[in-house]
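The data layer described in this paper is built around a simple, fixed record for each protein. We quote a single record here, exactly as it is kept in our systems:
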Amino acid sequence: MRRSRRDGGFTLFEVMAAVLVLGMLYSVLANSAMQGLHSEGETRRRLEASLIADRALADLELQLSLGELPPSGSAEEELDPYRIRVTVQPFDATVLRVPPEPGAAAPEVTPPADSLLAPPSSGNEGRLRRIDIQVSWPEASEERSVGRTTFAFDTTGLEEVFPEEGEQAQAADEPPSEDAIQAMEKALRGLQ
């Protein structure tokens, strides 16, 4: 009795082809797993940076609610591997005005230097500040960052323009003083 070659098992060529297919499948799966781990790490670092930026913003807003305006300039802090940069600068609110219709003459209205929304000028920072918080970290060969922006209003000197509620009830019986009238007129001119 004679046995044919096909009755016994696999040939060497068939085994090698199966190993090659399994090797290719393994390398595709390993590559996908490595990309997933890299994405997970990047997402985790971005989330941590966002939480650090939110915490820095909350600290600033607490400071602002207590009436403390941070000084203009930049401050930088290291929190390994993150770098936190807080920049405070005067903000010109006049850039927010609606532009005039095309062809119409643009009115040149500049609020007085002592108005509430006066633009920053030399020696005067104005009342409005822009606060930028940027948290950056190295990611492979690049630097990634997350940012937050808020605005602060310097409230010093507003007590004479806008008295407290208790003072309003007391002052309701009395006519406003000449100084209070002038302060209100200046504030209103600045809002026009």
